[in-house]
Amino acid sequence: MKHTYRLWLAACTCMVILLSACKKDYYQDTGTAKGRFNGSVMDYLQSKPDYFSNVVKVIGYAKMEQVFSKENITFFAPANPCFDSSVNLLNKILYLTGRDTIKTLDQVHPEVWRQLLSRYVFKGKMMLNDIPQVDFLKFKTYPGQIVRSYDGVPMNLGVVYGNEGGAEYVGYRQLHISYQADISQPLSTWYKAPVASVNIEPDNGAVHVLVFTQHYFGFDINEFYNLCLRYGIAGK
């Protein structure tokens, strides 16, 4: 009887170990974040100034506070370094073309911020499982999904399924948002932005945080530069 009990206990212990080993985190980089947030998308961004102080400023310049506070949206959130990278590169281009550089974000015209910011915002709530698979090497088979952004720009949303142990599409899953600068040239003019943390749930939608080391705010730095020239840069 005692021998049988020991065998049963050993079997249960092994099962617990196996189940624990089988649990996988299917997200790269910073991984999953704590899901629920008590407050609006705007409240969430304001609660993390170390990451999102720049995007909070830009939301104000673009006059989209009510969108982030009241409307039901999905937001692919670019962190502060995304803005720093874009502005630094913009300033290099401005300098090389003999133009004044910018020192603060409010020197960029509000319409520029509105056009670029709206690419990251979608009406309605979309979680990871709501978005189809994308494979950038087998795009005809797994194309993700074209979804129009808040201001109507067609964006591609898709989840990359990684490989593991020689098996295809069984590893980590990583959400991507992509912008195509020229729709006549599929993929060759695409700007992909991978997501670090998914499925953050404020009261009025979903937030997915981008990998800041691999993304320039606005996706296309040349377009950022051209928009700044079109609308003008305010001197400080």
> Assembly type of the shown chains?
single chain
Net shape: globular
- Largest sheet data: 7 strands, mixed
Query: Rg to the nearest angstrom?
Result: 22 Å
Give unreliable regions as ranges: 1-32
Query: What is the count of β-strands?
Result: 7
Structural class: alpha+beta
Element order, helices and strands?
Answer: HHHHEHHEEEEEEH
In percent, how much strand structure appears in the residues?
15-25%
Tally of DSSP helical segments? 7
Mean pLDDT level = 86
Structural write-up:
The chain has a seven-stranded mixed beta sheet with strand order 2-1-7-6-5-4-3, with no helix packed on it. The protein has helices at 2-22, 41-46, 49-61, 65-70, 80-96, 110-117, 221-231; strands at residues 73-77, 121-123, 145-148, 154-161, 173-180, 190-200, 205-210. Helix 5 (80-96) crosses helix 7 (221-231). The protein has seven helices and seven strands. Helices cover 35% and strands 19% of the residues. It is globular, with a radius of gyration of 22 Å. It has 236 residues and is of the alpha+beta class.
